[in-house]
Amino acid sequence: MFSMKRCLVLLAALSLFASPAMADELISLKGGYLKLHPDGKFAVSGGGIPGTTVDMDELGFDDSENYLVEAALKFGSFRLYAAYMPINFSGDGVLSQNIEFNGETFVAGSKVDSDVDIDLYQAGVAWYLINVDDLPVRLQLGPEVSAVYVNVKAKMKEDLYGLSESDSVKVPVATVGLRGRLAMGDYLGVVGRVGYLDYKGNSFLDADAQVEFSPLPMVGLFAGYRYLDIDIDESGVMVDATFDGPYAGAMFRF
Hints:
The chain is mostly beta strands.
């Protein structure tokens, strides 16, 4: 069995073997379609009145079907990326109880339309401590840190009494995690990543598994599965929910 000292020596040797001089510079652009299923709750306080916690299932929220975009630059053992992903959930349902939402009361038995929109802006860097990318079988693995800007807007509307309320909050968070890639040249690859951080009562977990297929050197397809766990309680807006689902798209590399 390897000792911790031997493991560290092996890791350092692999890092030196896969030095930046051995890695090609690469720009990649990705665009695709993402479908996420919501599971969780939200609340909006206002006027000094605490918001009622509402279950998304009770309001009949549909899946979010939207796009995602990412641009990445790889140089040496480092990978920089920026990404944008909008998430939009809407639904309608009959309230089983009175709901306090942004200082207004939506009474039990009334039919309401609700929306929760989340815009995610991400930028980060991965450092491949293991970066063997000049062989037929390529392996890259290392830590990744990212900054995430979360823009959340919640809305509730009830036509019978003419009530319509909304509120929003913008929260910067960060994640620390791991990214890895195993590939057969540039033809077929599997990518996995996970990032998490809990800070001042807000937490963000982002996990992703993806398969890349490039029949041509500069053009390819990708498909994967995304899991997000967002827990935000800031400025009267609370969202504690998970979102997960498949995605697919096209990529260009040069």
